Amino acid sequence: HESTILIFDNAFSASSDALEFAAYGWLRWSQPSLPRPVRVPTPLTLLMLPALALSLLVCYLSVATTESWVQVDIIASAFALGVPLGLWSKWHAGRAAGLDVVA
Asked: Considering the entire predicted model, what is its pTM?
């Protein structure tokens, strides 16, 4: 079904966006002196909060409006497996480059 494909696409796109916004905020807070190609003033950084909220809302609606619990299980399982896999990949890439990487 086309609607099933759209539900998966929306859920994963929104969760990707939400994680990117969260990572931006985390890096800005945890490493404020990190060199960046573009400096964004702090008041403008607060504009990302509505975008993060909308991304999380789309994630919720993608799951809440699915046609079956099988779709919800697939989305949740892929997300639950994807986050640890991403953290492991980050750790492994850091070790290969000789960096002290903390997840």
From this structure: 0.49
